Amino acid sequence: MMADMGAVAEQTAKLHLDEETGELVSKGELKKRQAKRAKKAATAKAKEAKAAVAAAVGGNDKKPAPKPKEEEVVIDSEAMFKQGFLDDVFKERPMKPVVTRFPPEPNGFLHIGHAKAIAVNFGFAKYHGGVCYLRYDDTNPEKEEEKYFTAIQDMVHWLGFTPYKITHSSDNFQKLYDLAEKLITLEKAYVCHCDDTEIKLQRGGEKGATPRYRCEHASQTVEANLKKFRDMRDGVYKPREAFLRMKMDMEDGNPQMWDLAAYRIKSDTPHHRTGWDWKIYPTYDFTHGLCDSFEKITHSLCTTEFINSRQSYEWLNKVLGVYEPMQREYGRLNITGTVLSKRKIQKLVDDGHVRDWDDPRLFTLVSLRRRGVPPQAILDFISELGVTPSTTTIQIKRFEQSIRKYLERTVPRLMMVLDPIPVTIEDATETLDLELPFSPKDPAMGSHTVKFTPTVYIDRSDFREVDSKDYFRLAPGKTVGLMNAPYPIKATSFGKDEATGKVTEVRAVFDKEGKKPKAFITWVGTEGSQRVEARVHNSLFKSERPDDAEGGFLNDIHPESEVVYPDAVIESGIDEVKRRAPWPEAAGESERGKSGPEGVRFQAMRLAYFAMDSDSKDDKIVLNKIVSLKEDAGKN
Ligand SMILES: [Zn+2]
């Protein structure tokens, strides 16, 4: 039967989470509790202040700033292009159409830092109605692998961007070679045979204290240089026996002007695209600016590590008389409390500390996707931080706070129980259909039907064998509200497994006459619900600086970074949430049905935000925790 549940649902929809106890309580009750706690805290603080004044006269007793009230602010993800650094960059060269590029080296998986580069380059072009190239900077055959090409492209699409064209630096190998010969002809490049020690000395020695000078090879004739360069190309030399150097300015204060390498011999590895065609490969310093020039990039945006390279970048294009793009540098995005280096992540994978490169506890983009972090939430986060020339270093919790704020208003709510124990309500005679909204605030999310059955599951942590006065959930003789259910229930008895000491079942009755319960808990019925595996992740590392741990970052691994609940139960609403994924439709998931399992996102009330994992099968859902409901939820 369909119960007349409107009033009940409405009433319980107004419940608020008491973050300290995890209980759902009325607004009044929550206010009462908060006032009580504030009073207690104030008393403690006054006591502390008194003691502090007594102990340290003249000490700094500045009051901490009051915690700002959390507001529901919808981020303008275009804000970073409308003002500040990126707006200034455009005004400096108001050239249209804007043409930008995102130029990753295809030698590793992208991480959260690259998301900023993608957002800046693709976003800048999009905002100004221009285009952005995805250019693989594939000039190092030793490090490149096909899987990285595919993964990078996937991530750009996932973040909601479409490259104007996908290009490769290697597309230009012949053009670059020809320009190198031209540079020699212009007496702006020479083939050098010096070794590393000699080069270091020429560049001012270990501490840069001795005078800089050029080697004898710098004074070779154009003809000699051309012959030697062609010999390099034709395999006459072995690797390291010769390299092409640009003849720049040894007097300049910028080390990027001290006759940088332009071409090196790499004859022992085939290139993934050009095979064995080339025995010499151009360096980053030679390639990057020229490829920008070939593609008529208007604004070449890179991170501040390349600020010294701006001079060599401009020098090369100018000397060769080609189209000159404008390079400008913004601060990179760093995140503490994790490791991002390829070598370290590989070690974590190899040693079995994480499942793979896409383990939800890592901060590669494939990991964040698998974990269920929505692409638009990442873009909003980057926009919220803003783009300036200074490096932004943030803590994981700051990132998670931003994700939480985004999920709060965009995903449906469901009831789930991680560690279920059955509660049999002895006087419940029939199953009731409850119509529950997916969101207490957004009616557009719709509603779904949940069966309230005579036996329901509650979480083990919501029952105590022995009651106490300051405890408001279920215990023998105690009444608790079941979220959205018609009546509160009172526990009458319980059964235990003598071997394990664990409670196996609870028996209860409706408490139809008593007072309104102080707290409400979540539950899942036995009909329509299903068993799922829930993986609850905590930070992979214990500290903010895993690299500083004694003995290295592996010693900083959190022993409980993943807690698995193999027998969690979730209500029937999950079926519709699955059917209607992705939640929400935004960025690279803007078409219904066009996301992976991670698009199935929801808030498990009182628990955390979850998303479906790629390990899910047709008959078994596996869930990942995306983020907790509140910042300090280290209670799991
Ligand atoms: Zn030399």
Automatic annotation (TrEMBL):
Residues of the Glutamyl/glutaminyl-tRNA synthetase class Ib catalytic domain: 98-408
Keyword Glycoprotein: no
Residue stretches making up the Glutamyl/glutaminyl-tRNA synthetase class Ib anti-codon binding domain: 412-510
Biological process terms in GO annotation: glutaminyl-tRNA aminoacylation
Any single GO CC term annotated in Swiss-Prot or TrEMBL for this entry: cytosol
GO terms, molecular function: ATP binding; glutamine-tRNA ligase activity
Keywords: Aminoacyl-tRNA synthetase, ATP-binding, Ligase, Nucleotide-binding, Protein biosynthesis
PANTHER family referenced in this protein's UniProt entry, alphabetically: GLUTAMINE--TRNA LIGASE, GLUTAMINE-TRNA LIGASE
Sequence similarity: Belongs to the class-I aminoacyl-tRNA synthetase family.
The protein, known as: glutamine--tRNA ligase
Organism: Sodiomyces alkalinus (strain CBS 110278 / VKM F-3762 / F11)
